[in-house]
Design goal:
By secondary structure, the protein is α/β, with parallel strands linked by helices. The strands form three sheets. It has a six-stranded parallel sheet, sandwiched between helices. The longest helix has 15 residues. It has two domains: 101 residues, no CATH class; 145 residues, 3-Layer(aba) Sandwich (Rossmann fold), CATH 3.40.50. Helix content is 29%, strand content 19%. The chain starts with 34 loop residues before the first strand and ends with a strand.
Length: 300
């Protein structure tokens, strides 16, 4: 949506880690990085076993494209193609776990229950937490959050949200402060709300990309006295603490396993053929309360 609305920063590459997006943001622009399809033709130096193989590619939305075989990720035989569409976002959620490092018995709050937030909730539910509270403004997403295992899902438009969150934490886990907070709402104002609810020496993982939107941080109160840590999480690299033992391939393997367990195609709310892509973007822009995950489909 930031790209659609023109809120991308000038002079910054779309994605340095993706070959097809290693250029600066400017219109006209093909964007996207989660494509699943079947290899239809081979170059002369490509191994024949690639033909007809189902693959994932970090590539913009297109019905056909030419790419080097080393840019393709074969789908495991037991992964449905519609679940595989979520590989990029699932890898992001896995990276959030690595950056935040949830601990048994912790009280965790997650701001934002769009697709990345919901995948994060689904993974957090697999930890033996004391309490998991989620925040989002749309009822459809809050309902899905509860289905995934959140103990409580709060409306982001609640009056005095921070106070309400503190009361919720006190009633759900006996503590008035969170040990770990995830900010994946895309709303810069949520960082201050995260600071308000974070306890002493708590961690706040910021997974949102704000583009040209500015975050006005209140660092004069709770943040300073509580020694809160703000953690920048970005999936294009591995957290430094894991770099000696982990590779991107290892992290992708974990993402595939989580896809097997969660089957994220359950989050698809709408499908549009690619020639109706304008309708898809307008839906997300004007009526986001109706959508969780929109996918584009292509004719063979």
């Amino acid at each position: 949506m930031l790209v659609y609305r023109g809120r991308f920063p000038a002079g910054v590459k779309a994605d340095e880690g993706i070959g097809a997006l290693a250029h600066e943001f400017s219109y006209p622009l093909k964007y996207g990085y989660a494509t699943v399809g079947r290899v239809a033709a081979l170059g002369s130096n490509v191994a024949p076993e690639w033909l007809n193989r189902l693959v994932f590619c970090f590539h913009p939305h297109e019905s056909h494209f030419v790419v080097a075989s080393d840019q393709l990720i074969p789908l495991p035989a037991d992964i449905d193609p519609t679940d595989a569409v979520f590989l990029a976002n699932m890898e992001t959620a896995v990276n959030f776990m690595m950056d935040g490092r949830p601990v048994i018995g912790e009280c965790v709050v997650a701001f934002g229950q769009g697709i990345v937030g919901l995948l994060t909730t689904a993974l957090l539910h697999r930890f033996p937490l004391n309490s998991l509270v989620t925040v989002d403004k749309y009822p459809l997403r809050r309902e899905k959050s509860l289905q995934l295992g959140a103990d409580c899902a709060i409306d982001a438009d609640t009056v005095n949200l921070s106070v309400h969150l503190v009361e919720t934490l006190r009633s759900s886990c006996g503590a008035s402060e969170a040990d770990l907070v995830y900010e994946v709402s895309g709303n810069p104002d949520a960082i201050n709300q995260a600071i308000d609810v974070a306890g002493f020496a708590a961690r706040i993982v910021i997974g949102s990309w704000y583009g040209t939107q500015k975050a006005k941080l209140d660092l004069g109160g709770h943040f300073h006295r509580r020694r809160i840590t703000l953690i920048s999480s970005q999936v294009s690299t591995l957290p430094q603490e894991f770099a000696a033992r982990w590779s991107k391939a290892r992290r992708l393997g974990v993402a595939w396993e989580m896809i097997r367990q969660i089957k994220p195609s359950q989050f698809i709310t709408q499908r549009f053929p690619v020639n109706r892509v304008q309708e898809a973007f307008e839906l997300l822009d004007k009526r986001p309360e109706e959508a969780i995950q929109v996918v584009l489909t292509y004719e063979h």
